[in-house]
Amino acid sequence: MIDVAITALGKYLPEQRLTNKDLEKMVDTNDEWITTRTGIKERRIANKEDGEVTTYMATKAVEQLIAKRGLDPLEIDLIICGTITPDLRFPDTANAVAHNIGATNAFGFDVNAACSGFLFSLATGVAYIKSGMYKKVIVVGVDTMSSILNYEDRSTCIIFGDGAGATLLEANVEGNGIKDQVLRGDGSGIEFLHMKNGGALNPITKENIDSGDQYVFQDGRPVFKRAVQGMSRTVKQVLANNNLVSSELDWIVPHQANMRIINSVADQLDFPLEKVMQTIENYGNTTAATIPLCLNDYESKLKKGDKIILTAFGGGFTWGSIYLTWAYDGEL
Ligand code: UT7
Questions:
Q1: Residue 226, ligand 1, Cβ within 6 A
Q2: Domain span at residue 16?
Q3: I want to staple 114 with a disulfide (CB 3.0 to 4.6 A). Which of 107, 146, 253, 315 is the partner?
């Protein structure tokens, strides 16, 4: 069986910052509430007027990865973008990224799995290489959440931010890489987290726009509960599948939705917070980008052979955990 590992990383974050103090001037909220309820201090916001949106951010993240790894774009076989905020309804973000970087031998597609978008895309990319079909696959998690938020809705606009993280997948001869996955979905979760307008059900009409349903809707409490349950249960399942106990892990990389969710998952697993990657304070919830952004920010601390579990929960509901061993030491 071919082992498939993450062999390079890249990221892009907009310069523009939206702090809790800024939000205090926009909606009825305050820094203390946001900090204690979510752990978020600021998020990055794409400068849409300058075209700094999903394709742009994904392209920049991939360009950084290519430069760090010294990769020829012509070697890339496939690009997969996890995103719920593509620039266009069609064609896909991944195709445009391939064009922008000159990956003319590649094809691409997007995966819509909300906050689990990176995990589902990663699992897909790994399967293509394991099958022997392709050699170099780039998996991106990218979202411009600010393009689908209502900045008059304090229950959602304080949570999300924009960004992109990219990973390169290749076969690994040392036995490191993605070892196992438990991925799940439950469509009964639609009512708690969704965006109604703009699809086939509610196309863009004047009436639909007037209804205001073109923004993210979230009923936070049930999502919170299911997120803790879904992430901790699938981490436990992956540990059991691989005859591991949590103390043997070097890192857990959780989706960054809420610091209290992250703390509760760590608590359920009896796992020390120092080994839980966290970027939520600075970036908020960047949806599909949270996990690859964490990997980027912690890259210098990672060592070959480190045992890592990635875990996420999001709209759908979609959720799951992936167990991997890291393939290289420190920053490339
Ligand atoms: O990433 C995809 C998956 N998403 C998640 O995992 C998110 C899961 N949910 C959450 O993170 C949390 O539920 C939220 C951060 C969204 C909300 O936190 P909460 O502790 O669940 O608050 P709540 O919605 O139960 O609201 C508590 C109170 C309410 O006031 P009353 O009814 O108690 O008077 C809200 O109106 O806090 C109020 N509130 C706010 N107050 C100040 C809600 N949003 C705000 C706000 N500032 N921004």
A1: no
A2: 3-175
A3: 315
